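Per reviewer request, we include the raw input and output of the structure prediction for the construct analysed in the revised manuscript.
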Amino acid sequence: MKNLLNAMLVIILCFFGCNGKTDKKSTAQPKNREIVNNDSIDIESNNSVEKNTASSDSKYVEVKTWIDDFRNFRMAIYNNDVPQLKTYFSFPFEDKGHTIIGLCAISDADWIVRKKHFKDPQLFYEADLEKYHKKVFDERFTTAILKIKSEQLVAKHSTETKLFGDKDLIYKLYADYNEDEKTLMLNMSIGNNAKYPDGNYVSEGEHNIIYHFKIMNGKKLILIRVDMAG
């Protein structure tokens, strides 16, 4: 009995010595953000860094001018956001030069299905953007558009990226705003990365993919044409 009383006394002293509290540490870890927002990505602008601003619950800035919508388009490309990319099209998109369909590189088997499914298989549909958006706006286009200096585009109505290169190709992106016609043109210039003995780039394979946007009501960008030259 004496030993039992002593044991109870020790327990009571320990309890009050800790003020009746236990030390528990949370093991929950904060979740990483999977989508990069306009207010959390740094995009090169002039000699500094441009940070687009948006509310904490939105991936995109409020569109007040066409340059806001351009920044949102750029962010949609970066975030691989197909629903947002759809807002830059009027479907079905009439591809007069068949360039956008060509960029999709549709297989023979898919053409058979396409001809059965669509009344006019030469048009570009929402389902096509969902399936082929990474071919219409490929990795090189994504790399380049993130380096467009939007402040310079506003101030000078024209800007271009540096020259990029990978194993096979060199490329750069030109952006031109036409105030009179209310258009924005994004011109991807692509060349061969091989060189002649004199140091000049091989000319074979040079071509341009040109995306033409119409600016609606002074602020909304709508893709109206895609051309390929060269």
